[in-house]
Task: structure prediction
Amino acid sequence: MLEGAKSIGAGAATIALAGAAVGIGNVLSSSIHSVARNPSLAKQSFGYAILGFALTEAIASFAPMMAFLISFVFRSHKKS
Result:
């Protein structure tokens, strides 16, 4: 029973990767729109876009970490 719940929890933790993909898409979309509106600020906008990518990926790295913690660290202690 506990093993099944752990598998469900690990799978649910990896759903956050879809949210990270949406976040990266939003950062890229906003970067393209800002350069289209004001091309003279393209270099500064690129720096902000890279910062947005980095922060989004940092949050996305927590999802597999939690899935591995649920799968391998939280082991059930069977009483014999």
Q: What stands out?
A: Residues 42-73 form the longest helix (32 residues). The mean pLDDT is 85. Helices lie at 2-14, 16-37, 42-73.
